[in-house]
Amino acid sequence: MRFAPRAFAKAADRMRRRDFIALVGSAAAWIVPARAQAMPVIGYLGSESPERYSSRLSAFREGLAEAGYAEGRNVAIEFRWAEGQYNRLPALAADLAHRQVAVMVAAGGAEIALAAKSATTTIPIVFEMGGDPIALGVVDSLSRPAGNLTGVSSLSVEVSRKRLEFMREVRPGTEIFAVAVNSASPTSNSQLENLHAAADSLGVKLIVLKASAEQDFDAMFSTVREKQAGGLVFSSDPYFAYRSHQLAELAVRHAVPAITQSRDFPIAGGLMSYGGDFRQSHRQTGIYAGRILNGQKPSDLPVQRVTKVELFVNLWAANTLGISIPPSLLSSADGVVE
Amino acid sequence: MIWSTGRRAITPSNSIGSPRTSLFKKYFLALFAAVVVPLVIAGGSEAWFGYRDQRSSLNDILDAEARLAAVKIEDFIEGIRGQLGWTVQLPWSEETGQSRRLDALRLLRQAPAVVSLTLVDPTGRERLFVSRIGLNRIDGGADLSANPAVIGARSNRFWFGPVTFQDGSEPFMTVAVAGNRSAVGVAVAEVNLKFIWEVISEIRVGRTGEAFVLDGPGRLVAHPDINLVLQADEAAQRPLQALRTSILANPGQAATGQDIAGKTVLATMAQIPGVDWSVIVKQPLAEAFGPIYAALWRTGALLVAGAALAALLAYWLTQRMVGPIRLLEDGVGRIGAGQFDHRISLATGDEFERLASRFNEMAGELSLSQERSERINRLKRFLAPQVAELVDRTGDDRLLDGRRVEVVVIFCDLRNFTAFSANAEPEQVMSLLREYYDALERVVSIHEATLISFSGDGAMVLVNAPVSCSDPALRAVNMARDMQVSVQKLLVNWRALDNRLGFGVGLAMGPATVGRIGTEGRLHYNAIGNVANLASRLCSSAENSQILIDRVAARAVGRQMPLVELDARTLKGFDEPVPVFSVVIGTGN
Description:
Low-confidence stretches of chain A: 1-12, 21-36
Oligomer: heterodimer
Strand order of the largest sheet of chain A: 7-6-8-9-10-12-13
Radius of gyration of chain B: 65 Å
Mean pLDDT of chain A: 86
Strand content of chain A: 15-25%
Shape of chain B: rod-shaped
Radius of gyration of chain A: 21 Å
Mean pLDDT of chain B: 85
Shape of chain A: elongated
Helix content of chain A: 40-55%
Number of strands of chain A: 13
Number of helices of chain A: 14
Largest sheet of chain B: 8 strands, mixed
Helix content of chain B: 40-55%
Number of helices of chain B: 17
Largest sheet of chain A: 7 strands, mixed
């Protein structure tokens, strides 16, 4: 979290100036109604509900503020929520495109980015996702993305093999591990490949469990118990990430040691997490949306990679599960829940 | 009318015409220049030296900023190198690298820029690999002895790889450090240079100046706008390379050039030795020269204000100088025009006031002198010029006041002139009278007597009034004799016209009332009394070339002049016969 305090301070500093500008702006808007109509609209496409997105949204708004925008003052945000039904995303994206929003924000995964991309070739799109944007066909270049897309990618997808490594480290005696994969995810195949290669080099066996809906979760945890796997490793997937609380509950109930990409999981009672810092990536998404509103073209904004990968460990969960966390792991943890 | 001719000579102010150039203009320009020229010189030189000082101090400041920025970047790299140094302190033995793993993980935790770390033993084998992304390996055993990082670090203690742009975007660099003994092996780290952003974005030069880093080949490694780095667009970075070239062309001097946005900037540079990077600090030219421009504006404003003040001052001073001169000119003009009562009122307290008072004195003098000459003119009507002058010189006008005094009254006239004038041509009469008057006036003037009046062929002359003289009787007799002599000379010629013409003189002495008589316009000096009557009667009684005097005069003359006592005559207005004396006019005279 070395970035954070400085970034917050900077954001706060800009906030004051912007507050003033916004105040003047809103006063002008109040006097001249035409000004209010001219307020640009951001179309925000989310795969879940506002509640599940709340921490991401606050980071996004922080980024917007850094670029000089505040919702309701000088920008309006039009939200479209898929409520976990990813097949609704293309229609929602098309709806936003139809609304002719100034910029479309597709935050929270490759599925959303791809849905937005298919909906329009003219409206600028800022995406936020975990995988490799080039490999997934979202953009052709990171430094100068051609077309109307740019955005932020975190290292979450790339590091799913590290989750297996960490799980093996805390469960040194076991040879079998379960892997949870969302078969609906466009990154599932590459992650599986990755995980199998890692399993080979670590000398462990994998049980692949597919889950693409909430009702599959319970069975998944039961299977881990039944197959006496050493632990459950979640592949990187927003569908899992947004359901960290639910997964943590299940992990506690089934007493399954598990690791996911999102820090929400250990904070809610799960054992561990290892993945990109979503606050950073969503904040950067907000900054980019603001910069596009300021007139910059997506092709001038290189795709940013959030380099920070964070490890969170819940010692209370470890104790409950009877697991001792090796000091090497604890020392490299970015956050420890006790 | 002497004065009126004089007036024409003094007053013609309109005939002088307007001067070629005015004093006002001259003095105004001179005074203005006297203030403005030094002001301009001082202001100009101050601006010039200020510019030079500012330029050189700017140079120093930017230079210091560049060094400071270079130190900060170097600290970043040195920090990583120092962290790596910890991992190559203990020699390798045969046991696994497990014990080193903790150190390596701690290093990743400490140095967020390090993405992965490889520890190589003295034989060049990979003993440990830890990564944030990839799987860790212990005793991987790969032979890395040919790896340039390992070779470089072994020969030089440490090695910095070239900057590579991962996926054409994120800058990375390999850093390798060898221990101080070959037994401790080499640590090789992959460093994400995006983290320099934290350092570079903190550097501020002035208000909006920034720093950026170019690697050896001139690629942008760090910039406060991280996007410029991530774009890794070498074409767009060409201005920055040009900037570096122009700094190198003039070492130690701040160079002017363009940044990526096309803004003109002032830039200096410092090298980071180990990695061969250039840290360049730049400041927008407008901002860097802001104080100079401000100073120039200030100087300009001061100059303008100074010039305005100088103009005002010059105007005021010139006005103070020229105003009195104009007043004097006007006053002199008025005085010249005869307005002697005009006074020039100047209270400047300086030479002008003195000059004005001199002019005023002069006007007073002129006024006095005019009065005097008017009086003289008046006196000249009945006084001999010398007497008139004398009266004037004594300045005592009271001389002409009425009083009773012992005077000698002389009357003379031509005999048979009336008959002559009746027959003669008027021109002849006039010219004859003119000659006659001239002769008489001359004689009266010589004897400083007072010519009271001419009337036709007669004249009345007074001696001892208004100016008294010594021995008036003798003077009068002498004068009468001279009159006779002069007129008789004329008569010699005139007899050709009329042989009956003659000239007689009567003279009497006694008290008479003398003084000015008449109105202001027709003023006469006259003597009233018996003596005048007597003189007139004696004149009438005298024959040609005869001078008759009364007894008082004769007695006063005494023996100084040969006199002949004639028979007493009965004169009109006198009850008894009046004793009469005749002056013997010497044949010699």
